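thread: overnight batch results

M.L. [08:02]
morning all. the overnight job finished for the chain we discussed friday. pasting input first so we're all looking at the same thing
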Amino acid sequence: MLSDMLTVPASQALTVRNSRDPSLLWVHAGTATVHAARQTHRLSTGQGLWMPAGVSYTVEVDADSVAFPIYPTTGHRSPVLTHAHRIELPASWSDWLIYQFARSIGYLRGATSDTSLLDLVTGSHSSVLEEDQPRLGHVPLPPMPRSFEAATVAHSLLQRPADPAATAEHARSVSVSVRTLQLQFLLETGLSFVRWRTAVRVAAAAALMDSGREIGWAGAQVGFATAAGFTKAFRSQTGMSPRQYKKGIPTTHPPDDQLVADFTELLLPQLRSETVRSDPPPPRIPATKTWSRINDFHVLVWVYRGSARVTVGERTRRLRRGDAIWLPAGVRNSITLPRGSLILPLGSRHGTLETRLPRNLVHRFADGAELHLLHTFVANYSLVRPSSHDPNRITHAFLELASRPRFEDAKSREESLPVHRIIRAVRSDPSDRRNMKHWAQALDVDANELRRTFAAITGQTLAVWRAEVRMTEARRYLEEGLGIAQVSSKLGYASPSAFSTVFSRAHGMSPREYQRNGWQHTDERLIVR
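M.L. [08:03]
and the structure it wrote out:
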């Protein structure tokens, strides 16, 4: 199971239709295809397709690729793009785009009025490509890595795209491990090393064809062993065959049929444009929090960028990039994120504190698993997923990594049973007002012992824990559109005003304000919550 985390299967979403909001299908890594309005849109790393509301479409994401369905914040503006449009998105915006997808799920506090992504999409900073016209006469180079080792290898391949050296040889040439080199390319360009090298070869072949070279000669010159392999790679990168590309290039007198010793000069215009191009800087991910909550399911979350302060029960842990933490069902949890940081939920599973828990709540996945974890994040929280997707696979993998079953002696198990009965009862009916004395009588146990065991398991007293449960449910009901009187009745408050007072004290805003500004997620069915 753990070895599978180094691979990313193909995904798809069949017959999607945004009923209300426009969306952006953005390819973070690899390639994807969108079929909409009798047209096919082939996308590669850094490209997105804007889909207006009301248009049906199908998404196909290739293996070893990750694509995010994003619902940009529009504020009170009406999007000016009323048809499907393909756009180029700067590599520097990757983290911000993933943050936008995370916001659409609704686990972060507050709504955002920032419309920077909409500005980028609608043309304030980006160039919109006509979806029915292939890009001819220019195939862009992939993003350049920044690390000294990866950049050194990258420039070497720009000079000699046909270099047949294996990844291990390139790694040895700059005195790093294969894993380090692969990770540098993946994190800094969004592409694996092999995909990055292929993208360079395709760009170099296109540059040769731009200069008048024949298709077969160009493919062989940059390192493709067969014509079929060249065609497949070229189509995957550009959405068209080499022949289609060649037809769109103005006729050029072919140069002398001499070998190209150094491709750097051939690709120099692109390298210069990469150097001088000034992409708009993305807004920095703001500092944010989650609301304190008590879930009736376990959640596995992962620090994708920056750091996080995570409170589970009464214990607070400080996590760094790459850490994953298990948030147990039935126990209060909250997360605080500094500016520029992002924590992503990887998956959840139904259960209670009685179910198997990891011995260590915090663990790290292998560095090379990042692309797989991003794929899992998308697959578990949207309908863009493999056809045979198992949403519990990631939690099984975490348990395999982080734990053995927690062994309890017979006495401690016996003591915990009454507590679990209380937890189940209150989760089922948060309006239940029984105090610990009443529960002790109902369960025929000592009240002091029950109070001690409850605090040991949940980290809180019954009164505080029940108040947290009620606020967790109150937010859910308000997000579903229920009125204050309905929510108050469901949760057992004496009056709507009493509920409003408690809610305002806990959240710093009234229930009405929370419904307007306290949360944000999309109601489109493509997103799963």
